[in-house]
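Hello support,

Our group uses your service weekly, and this is the first time we've seen a run hang past the timeout. The protein is Zinc finger CHY domain protein. I'm not sure whether the cause is the sequence or the server load. Input pasted verbatim:
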Amino acid sequence: MPLRGVAVDPETRCAHWDDPVDVIALRFGCCETYYPCDACHDAAADHEAVPWPRERFDEPAVLCGVCGTTLTAREYLESDDDACPACGAAFNPGCRKHRDRYFETEDAAESENGDESL
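Update from on-call engineer: The timeout came from a worker crash unrelated to the input. Re-ran successfully.
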C-alpha cells in the first residue's frame, strides 16, 4: 500500500501533524494512496485531492501507523473510540472535525446526484 507525505515518520506522523496521537494515514479516492493528512497530499501529489467515496466505505481507507492495521472507512467513522481496535493506539479525536476532507459526506454525494437542496 503506497504511503506518501512530508517528513513521514514510522508511525505516520508528518511535518503538519506530529503529536503522539497523530498516527493514522488516510487513503484518498483520487489516487489509492495513503497520506497522513490532506496537506501532505497537496504537497506530494500532482492532482487535486478527492475524498474517499461513500460507495467504497466498506473498503480499507485508514491505516494505523502504530500496528499497520487497516480499517474500512465505515469502521473508522462509526467507532466511538478514538483508538485502533487492533492495538489500542490512541487516534487524534480532532480529526473528526475535518472528516469531510477525507471522506465523502452525504451532502456532497447528494449534490453530485443533482440534489442542490442540501
